[in-house]
Amino acid sequence: MAKTASTRVGSGIPGFGDSEGAERRNFKKLDGEFKVEIIECLESPNKKNPKNTNVRLRTTILGGPEQADGSDMEGKEVSWFLNVDPDLVNDNGKRFTVDQYKSVYLAAGVKTTGNQPEPKKLAGKTIAIQAWESKPDEKGTTYQRWAAVSLAESKTFAED
Protein backbone atom coordinates (compact mmCIF):
# COMPACT_ATOMS: atom_id res chain seq x y z
CA MET A 1 0.00 0.00 0.00
CA ALA A 2 1.39 3.44 -0.98
CA LYS A 3 1.92 6.01 1.72
CA THR A 4 -0.15 9.15 1.31
CA ALA A 5 0.69 12.52 2.78
CA SER A 6 -1.78 11.93 5.62
CA THR A 7 -0.27 8.56 6.54
CA ARG A 8 3.23 10.05 6.56
CA VAL A 9 2.16 12.83 8.92
CA GLY A 10 0.80 10.26 11.35
CA SER A 11 -1.05 12.05 14.11
CA GLY A 12 -1.75 15.15 12.01
CA ILE A 13 -0.72 18.69 12.85
CA PRO A 14 -0.98 19.62 16.53
CA GLY A 15 -3.37 22.56 17.04
CA PHE A 16 -4.87 22.35 13.54
CA GLY A 17 -8.32 21.36 14.80
CA ASP A 18 -8.48 24.30 17.23
CA SER A 19 -7.12 26.85 14.76
CA GLU A 20 -9.44 29.64 13.61
CA GLY A 21 -7.21 30.47 10.63
CA ALA A 22 -4.87 33.39 10.13
CA GLU A 23 -5.97 36.97 10.50
CA ARG A 24 -5.89 39.21 7.48
CA ARG A 25 -2.59 41.08 7.32
CA ASN A 26 -2.56 44.84 7.00
CA PHE A 27 0.67 45.84 5.35
CA LYS A 28 2.16 49.06 6.66
CA LYS A 29 2.91 51.56 3.94
CA LEU A 30 5.91 53.62 4.96
CA ASP A 31 6.17 57.36 4.40
CA GLY A 32 9.33 59.44 4.32
CA GLU A 33 12.99 59.04 3.46
CA PHE A 34 14.88 56.14 5.03
CA LYS A 35 18.56 55.25 5.21
CA VAL A 36 18.78 51.52 4.51
CA GLU A 37 21.42 48.82 4.22
CA ILE A 38 20.70 46.30 1.50
CA ILE A 39 20.69 42.74 2.84
CA GLU A 40 20.11 41.16 -0.56
CA CYS A 41 18.41 41.73 -3.87
CA LEU A 42 16.46 38.82 -5.33
CA GLU A 43 15.20 38.54 -8.91
CA SER A 44 12.65 36.01 -10.13
CA PRO A 45 10.68 35.61 -13.36
CA ASN A 46 7.13 36.93 -13.28
CA LYS A 47 4.80 33.93 -13.69
CA LYS A 48 2.03 35.90 -15.45
CA ASN A 49 4.36 37.67 -17.84
CA PRO A 50 7.72 35.90 -18.40
CA LYS A 51 9.42 38.97 -19.94
CA ASN A 52 8.94 40.81 -16.63
CA THR A 53 11.19 40.39 -13.60
CA ASN A 54 10.04 40.49 -9.99
CA VAL A 55 12.56 42.20 -7.71
CA ARG A 56 12.65 42.01 -3.92
CA LEU A 57 15.10 44.36 -2.23
CA ARG A 58 15.58 43.20 1.39
CA THR A 59 16.88 45.99 3.61
CA THR A 60 17.50 46.95 7.22
CA ILE A 61 16.36 50.45 8.11
CA LEU A 62 19.19 52.46 9.67
CA GLY A 63 17.29 55.72 10.09
CA GLY A 64 14.16 57.55 9.09
CA PRO A 65 11.11 59.39 10.32
CA GLU A 66 8.64 58.24 12.95
CA GLN A 67 5.53 56.97 11.18
CA ALA A 68 2.01 58.40 11.55
CA ASP A 69 1.10 55.60 13.98
CA GLY A 70 4.08 56.53 16.19
CA SER A 71 6.21 53.54 15.19
CA ASP A 72 9.98 53.81 14.78
CA MET A 73 11.26 51.71 11.89
CA GLU A 74 14.97 51.86 12.79
CA GLY A 75 16.48 48.37 12.98
CA LYS A 76 13.51 46.74 11.22
CA GLU A 77 13.88 44.58 8.13
CA VAL A 78 11.78 45.86 5.23
CA SER A 79 11.42 44.41 1.74
CA TRP A 80 10.76 46.70 -1.20
CA PHE A 81 9.11 45.09 -4.24
CA LEU A 82 9.18 46.01 -7.91
CA ASN A 83 7.76 44.33 -11.01
CA VAL A 84 10.17 45.35 -13.77
CA ASP A 85 8.22 45.54 -17.03
CA PRO A 86 10.37 46.76 -19.97
CA ASP A 87 7.20 47.69 -21.91
CA LEU A 88 5.84 50.12 -19.30
CA VAL A 89 6.70 53.53 -20.69
CA ASN A 90 5.49 56.82 -19.21
CA ASP A 91 4.61 60.07 -20.98
CA ASN A 92 8.26 61.17 -21.04
CA GLY A 93 9.23 58.05 -22.99
CA LYS A 94 11.07 56.63 -19.95
CA ARG A 95 10.80 52.95 -19.08
CA PHE A 96 9.94 53.77 -15.52
CA THR A 97 10.14 50.33 -13.85
CA VAL A 98 13.43 49.58 -15.61
CA ASP A 99 14.64 53.05 -14.60
CA GLN A 100 13.50 52.53 -11.01
CA TYR A 101 15.49 49.28 -10.78
CA LYS A 102 18.58 50.88 -12.37
CA SER A 103 18.31 53.70 -9.79
CA VAL A 104 19.01 51.17 -7.03
CA TYR A 105 22.35 50.32 -8.68
CA LEU A 106 23.20 53.98 -9.28
CA ALA A 107 22.30 54.91 -5.68
CA ALA A 108 24.47 52.07 -4.38
CA GLY A 109 27.40 52.98 -6.65
CA VAL A 110 27.33 49.54 -8.28
CA LYS A 111 28.54 49.56 -11.88
CA THR A 112 26.65 47.50 -14.42
CA THR A 113 27.31 46.68 -18.06
CA GLY A 114 24.79 45.96 -20.76
CA ASN A 115 21.36 44.62 -19.90
CA GLN A 116 22.44 42.23 -17.15
CA PRO A 117 22.02 43.51 -13.56
CA GLU A 118 24.07 41.79 -10.88
CA PRO A 119 21.87 41.76 -7.75
CA LYS A 120 24.50 40.07 -5.56
CA LYS A 121 26.71 43.17 -5.84
CA LEU A 122 24.09 45.24 -3.99
CA ALA A 123 24.42 43.33 -0.68
CA GLY A 124 25.94 45.46 2.07
CA LYS A 125 25.46 48.78 0.24
CA THR A 126 23.77 51.72 1.98
CA ILE A 127 21.29 53.93 0.11
CA ALA A 128 18.29 56.16 0.80
CA ILE A 129 14.76 55.03 -0.01
CA GLN A 130 12.05 57.64 -0.50
CA ALA A 131 8.72 55.99 0.32
CA TRP A 132 5.09 57.04 -0.04
CA GLU A 133 1.62 55.53 -0.32
CA SER A 134 0.00 55.64 -3.76
CA LYS A 135 -3.31 57.30 -4.45
CA PRO A 136 -6.21 54.82 -4.32
CA ASP A 137 -6.94 52.94 -7.54
CA GLU A 138 -10.47 52.38 -8.90
CA LYS A 139 -11.08 49.75 -6.20
CA GLY A 140 -9.79 52.02 -3.43
CA THR A 141 -6.58 49.99 -2.95
CA THR A 142 -3.33 51.82 -2.22
CA TYR A 143 0.20 50.53 -2.73
CA GLN A 144 3.66 51.18 -1.34
CA ARG A 145 5.66 53.30 -3.78
CA TRP A 146 9.39 53.98 -3.48
CA ALA A 147 12.46 55.33 -5.17
CA ALA A 148 16.16 54.79 -4.47
CA VAL A 149 18.61 57.68 -4.22
CA SER A 150 22.24 57.87 -3.23
CA LEU A 151 23.02 59.16 0.24
CA ALA A 152 24.76 62.14 -1.42
CA GLU A 153 21.48 63.06 -3.17
CA SER A 154 19.35 62.44 -0.09
CA LYS A 155 17.60 65.44 1.43
CA THR A 156 17.82 63.80 4.87
CA PHE A 157 21.03 61.76 4.96
CA ALA A 158 23.41 63.65 2.60
CA GLU A 159 25.77 64.55 5.42
CA ASP A 160 25.94 61.05 7.00
Counting DSSP H or I runs of 4 or more residues, the number of helices is: 2
Q: What series of H and E elements makes up the topology?
A: HEEEHEE
- Mass-distribution shape: globular
Output the strand order for the largest sheet.
Answer: 3-2-1-4-5
What does this structure look like?
The chain is mainly beta and 160 residues long. It has one domain. The chain has 2 helices and 5 strands; from the N terminus they run H-E-E-E-H-E-E. The protein has helices spanning 5-9, 96-108, and strands at residues 32-45, 53-63, 77-84, 126-133, 144-149. The protein has a 5-stranded antiparallel sheet with strand order 3-2-1-4-5. It is globular and about 55 Å long. 18% of the residues are buried. The model has no long low-confidence stretch (mean pLDDT 89).
Note the main attributes of this structure.
11% helix; 2 helices; 160 residues; mainly beta
What is the compact description of this entry?
11% of the residues lie in helices and 29% in strands.
Please describe the topology of this protein.
Layout: H1 5-9, E1 32-45, E2 53-63, E3 77-84, H2 96-108, E4 126-133, E5 144-149
Antiparallel strand pairs: 1-2, 1-4, 2-3, 4-5
